[in-house]
Amino acid sequence: MKVNGLNKWINEWYEQHEEELNEYMHDVWAHPELGLFTKHAAEASYAFATTHGFPDAIISRAGEGVKTNTENPNAVIAEYGSGKPVIGIVGELDALPGLGNGDVPGKAPIAGPGHGCGHNLIAGAAMGAACALRYAMEKEGIKGTLRLVEAPGEEVGRGKALLAKDGVFSDMDLAIMWHPGPNEFSAEPQPGLCILAGSFEFRGKSAHAAGAPWAGRSALDAVQLMNMGCEFLREHVTKDCLLHYQITNGGGAPNIVPDYASVKYFCRAANNEHVKDLYERVVKCGEGAAHMTDTEFEPKLIFIIPYFYQNEPLYKYLHDISMEIPDVEYTEEDYEFARKLIEDYTGAATDKSNEELLPASKKTYEGMQERSTCTDAADMSYFCPTAHIHGGGSAAGSPGHHWTITACSGSPIGQKAAVRAGKVLAEGAFEAFGNQALIDECWAFQKTLNIPSYDEVYSIEIKDE
Ligand SMILES: [Zn+2]
Ligand SMILES: [Zn+2]
């Protein structure tokens, strides 16, 4: 019997625990931490999971083998049940630098990082889904393995790659997750871009900039010439390519010829081949700049986000599940919050209706959507059919990676969206456990994608910054 489009036990779990779950999401929000350093969030997740049916949950230091309670915890993995199928419900824990803001309807900066991508809500959607599903699995004697993964570093592009190295996704039959956003909730696939991110260092010779400039070899000159080369490169790459850079060290003072300077690049493109080609040509620009300035050049590939192979049948399945689950019911206060926030951000009154500010979920399924940014959920798609459903949880009109998202992610607007999205994940996974035909269909589709091996994609050596 279903209640509110959910197995009755899943529904019951949410009825009993929604408030606690909101507190957990707010706790993660109030302690924003950068990717791979998600200590508080991991501990809060561990505490929630262990008190809600996952006594064997572990805190893992991703990438160094799964360990318990290490000094620098950063991911949480919890499991229930045994045998096949193995279904993964995946969350995120990390925040973004410089995006701290109050949970108020306006700009109220808080120094330091903030949940400007709403990952505390992803954590809550996955946590709620896993706890509710575990409860239902026990009540109904469901066979199979549920694995909750709270991943530590989507924003630094390495969280899931490190977990993949630990084998966390290797035996999964399906992996599902949700990401919030200032658009309507949708379970349609959305392709992203691939990234190869590089940190490029130049070493020259220091000198007095006025006294003996001829004795110096400026590492900053090299950085600038590399950037100049890349600006010219832009014209001669395919249209899907994007390049962004940040000078991470430009020397100490104008009157010192800097013997060290560095620049970080994100090379993005629509597929693994284009992005590799782009990265190699960026490296050539660096080599050329080193030649011109008589400096030494050290390129380091710091992370990869590979092509995300979207499993369309899995999305369609989750869409159908989501259609049965009632939409979020926003209150007048929620609409007022969203309105004030957008007005504060734009500096003008908005003529948007309540429904435009906090839209209902998308009711139609139109298949593959326009390209979005990128996510390391891509990594999971090399191991099993993966769906990354998205949207809801912040006011329409908010830009991505923004303080308006931080504000909403600490408010009931974000929490309500995360609860509903979690219900979609929980019910989707619950029904999938008893639906081998669905799993077979997703795998049959997966085989048509001709996915290269993960090792092949990661054949370039990744180094720490
Ligand atoms: Zn983000
Ligand atoms: Zn994100």
Please explain how this structure is put together:
The strands form four sheets. The protein has a six-stranded mixed sheet, with helices on both faces. The protein folds into two domains: 2-191 and 308-456, Aminopeptidase (3-Layer(aba) Sandwich); 194-306, Alpha-Beta Plaits (2-Layer Sandwich), CATH 3.30.70.360. It has 13 helices and 14 strands. Helix 3 links the parallel strand 5 (86-92) and strand 6. It is an alpha+beta fold. The protein is globular and about 80 Å long. Helix 1 (8-30) runs antiparallel to helix 2. 39% of the residues lie in helices and 20% in strands. The site of one zinc ion (ZN) has 4 residues, from loops. The site of one zinc ion has 3 residues, from loops.
The helix-and-strand class reads alpha+beta
Level-1 CATH class name of the largest domain = Alpha Beta
Tell me how many strands there are. 14
CATH topology of the largest domain: Aminopeptidase
- CATH-wise, what's the superfamily of the largest domain? Zn peptidases
| Largest beta sheet: strand ordering | 3-4-6-5-7-14
Bound molecules: zinc ion
Number of H/I helices:
13
Mean pLDDT: 95
What portion of residues belong to β-strands?
15-25%
Low-confidence stretches: 66-71
Structural shape = globular
Whole-number count of domains: 2
Gist of the model:
The protein is α+β, with helices and mostly antiparallel strands and 465 residues long. It contains 13 helices and 14 strands. Helix 3 links the parallel strand 5 and strand 6.
Secondary-structure map with pairings?
Layout: E1 2-3, E2 6-7, H1 8-30, H2 39-51, E3 58-60, E4 75-82, E5 86-92, H3 119-140, E6 144-151, H4 159-165, E7 174-186, E8 194-203, E9 207-208, H5 219-233, E10 242-249, E11 256-257, E12 260-269, H6 272-293, E13 296-305, H7 312-324, H8 332-346, H9 354-357, E14 386-393, H10 403-409, H11 412-433, H12 436-448, H13 454-457
Parallel strand pairs: 5-6, 5-7, 7-14
Antiparallel strand pairs: 1-2, 3-4, 4-6, 8-12, 8-13, 9-11, 10-12
Bound molecules: zinc ion (2 copies).
One zinc ion binds next to loops.
